[in-house]
Known about the structure:
Blueprint: E1 21-25, E2 28-33, E3 41-46, H1 55-66, E4 70-74, H2 92-97, H3 105-117, E5 123-129, H4 131-142, E6 146-152, E7 170-175, H5 183-196, E8 201-206, H6 226-243
Parallel strand pairs: 3-4, 3-5, 5-6, 6-7, 7-8
Antiparallel strand pairs: 1-2, 2-4
Amino acid sequence: QMADPFLYNTGERSHYGCLGHEVQIDYLKAYVCRPSFFTDKAVIVVHDVFGWQFPDIRYIVDLMAGHGYITICPDFFKGTEPWKSTDHWADFSDWMKNHDPMKVDKEADVVLKYLKEQCGAKKIGIVGFSWGGMAVHHLMLKNPQLTAGVSLYGRIIRDSEERYSLLNPTFFIFGEKDHTISLDQIFLLEDKLKQYCKVPYKIKVYPGQVHGFAQLKPEDMKPDDKPYIEEARRDMIDWIKMFV
């Protein structure tokens, strides 16, 4: 029996009243939140396995919008069922086969087109969590339209040296106690990026933090973790502000 991949209990989420609204873009549903003033800067948020409707991810969308970005979280699962905390961990690899974070290019293009044509966005960044962190890593290798990316605790896939030739500045955030990603893997990622990456990148490991730590809402944080959660979020926003 493997450990559950998510150490935070999704059953006890505090209720969250969202600030944004849902839209239909082509074949995708999406959650959008806009700042109160006009901007031509946007951020795509890529959800984790719990999907685009999960309150924690909507909180992050609203947070980014509060920093002055048109922020959008599309349903990268295209209407199929997200993973639920009641699902059996034994079925996770089968579920993943049908929800491949490396197969997000078409959805990303649909959303980029919407942001440019409907929202007037000129610079677009991307942040993603867990499953979404893997998707961000992939997209930062493939899509030059994304000005900067932040990948939060996306499992590190070592399929080829092509995994390290990032097109634009990318920041990788990890928790020290994440049992899905070993520190060895993180050191290897750092080595390979030093070798192959031609654009700014950064890797940071947050002490004592488990998988999923950075998207907790304030009322769900444990006091010991709070400073690290807040620091990770600040770092994420600072990276986007630096490049987008």
